[in-house]
Amino acid sequence: MIDIRAILLTTALATAAMAPVAVPTCANAASQADLNRDSDQALQQLYSKNPSAELLAKHARAILVFPKIIKAGLVFGGAYGEGELKQGDKVDGYYNSVTASWGLQAGAQSYGYAVFLMSKKAVDYVHRSQGWEIGSGPTVVIVNEGVARNLSTSTLKDDAYAFIFDQQGLMAGVNIEGTKISRIKP
């Protein structure tokens, strides 16, 4: 028979152990130089592996890039990473990405992601919001291999397209999660 108290205790201990990883302090914030270098390298890596991303970059008004997100979970989980908003060659601000999740999940992984903002409306929303919750605001299309094959300048109709790249580690399960992107001062 399953002992619910043991499961709850194990979950509580795992969550407490993950707290320092999932919720970093401002003291851990990367420097602007580190974010600039890592973001540029991440985009070049993405473009070399996915030509559709480079096509989008040529038409995007801005790119929100998070070179490294760390995610861990055991029933309760979280993810955190820092990145920047690029408009052309100019950095237009620094941001963090915070995710909280709950569900049948276990593991840890790292990954990066880039959101190509295609419309003025999407860029304005990022600038004026106190934190952009993915799923509210501009429509975001997650680009997988199938979507990428069909992208062309004539099919670009959505506000934002997101690519996930450089996934490492293992995170398994089914969960409910929410991601919030907020402006920071590194």
List the SSEs and their pairings.
Blueprint (H helix, E strand, L loop, with lengths): L3 H19 L9 H18 L1 H9 L2 E26 L2 E28 L2 H9 L3 E2 L6 E3 L2 H5 L10 E25 L2
Parallel strand pairs: 4-5
Antiparallel strand pairs: 1-2, 2-5, 3-5
Please describe what this structure looks like.
This protein is an alpha+beta fold and 186 residues long. It has one domain (4-184). 32% of the residues lie in helices and 45% in strands. The protein is built from five helices and five strands; from the N terminus they run αααββαββαβ. Strands 1, 2, 3, 4 and 5 form a five-stranded mixed beta sheet that branches. Helix 2 (32-49) packs across helix 3 (51-59). The termini are far apart.
Concise overview:
With 186 residues, the protein is α+β, with helices and mostly antiparallel strands. The protein has one domain. 32% of the residues lie in helices and 45% in strands.
The beta-strand count equals 5
The geometry reads as: globular
Proportion of residues in β-strands:
over 45%
**What's the order of the H and E elements?**
HHHEEHEEHE
Q: Distance between termini?
A: 50 Å
User: In which range does the helix fraction lie?
Assistant: 25-40%
Low-pLDDT stretches: 1-27, 145-156
Radius of gyration: 17 Å
In terms of structural class, how would the helical and strand content be classed? alpha+beta
Task: Tell me the major beta sheet.
Answer: 5 strands, mixed
Total domain modules: 1
Individual helix count? 5
The pLDDT mean sits at 77
